[in-house]
Amino acid sequence: MIAYVSNTIVFTLTVQQGGMTNTSLGKIHVSPATLFIIPITFQLIMLAVYDQFIVPFLRKRTGYVGGIAHLQRIAIGFASMILAAVIAAVVEKKRKEAVVQMSLFWLAPLVLPAWRGRRDVVHRAPGVLQQRGATGHEVDRHGVVLV
After folding, report:
1. How far is residue 64 from each of residues 18, 29, 57, 71, 139, measured CA to CA in Å?
2. Cα distances (Å, whole numbers) of residue 58 to 54, 67, 83, 117
3. Average predicted confidence (pLDDT) for the chain
4. CA quadruple 44, 49, 54, 60: dihedral sign
5. The predicted structure's pLDDT at residue 120
6. What is the largest CA-CA distance in the chain?
7. How far is residue 42's CA from residue 35's CA, in Å, rounded to a whole number?
8. pTM for this structure?
């Protein structure tokens, strides 16, 4: 259940803090209830970048199919969730101290670490339960090498 903490942080604080910030982007007014679309869009973009560029680079350097070991990925994910909570607390503190309404873009630094934590812990953690073959590649329970 702790793996879903980053979802709670991102979606709850995005809407809650968005209700207290200036959500105008020029002549466009963004409703606070639709602000959760920003982290989802960012996640879609970052997943494509991660899978196309970062994983192949790490695969060449480490030899792991997924770029890094699963336990390393989970540790990075949990650290990212902690970072997301700290950033959310700092933004909330600054928002409460602000005399004028803060810009919508103050919520942007929260998105990257929360995305990283969610991607690593929620989506990739089940891979830890897979066995490893003699070559170090991941194999499923039938002995088929996963690429």
Report:
1. 40, 46, 11, 12, 12
2. 6, 4, 23, 18
3. 72
4. positive
5. 58
6. 62
7. 12
8. 0.59
Contact 110, 37 (CB under 8 A): no
Instruction: Name the token pair of 29.
Output: 């007014």
The amino acid sitting at 128 is V
How many other β-carbons are positioned within 10 Å of the β-carbon of residue 13? 21
Q: Who wins on pLDDT, 114 or 35?
A: 35
pLDDT at 122 over 70: no
d(CA 137, CA 30): 46
**Which tokens in the block code for residue 74?**
């989970």
Task: Tell me: pLDDT of 53 over 90.
Answer: yes
Q: Residue 3 burial by CB count (10 A; 0-12/13-18/19+): exposed, middle or buried?
A: middle
**Which single residue is written with the structure tokens 């991102």?**
10
In angstroms and rounded to an integer, the radius of gyration of the C-alpha atoms of the chain is: 19
The structure tokens listed for 143 are 């002995």
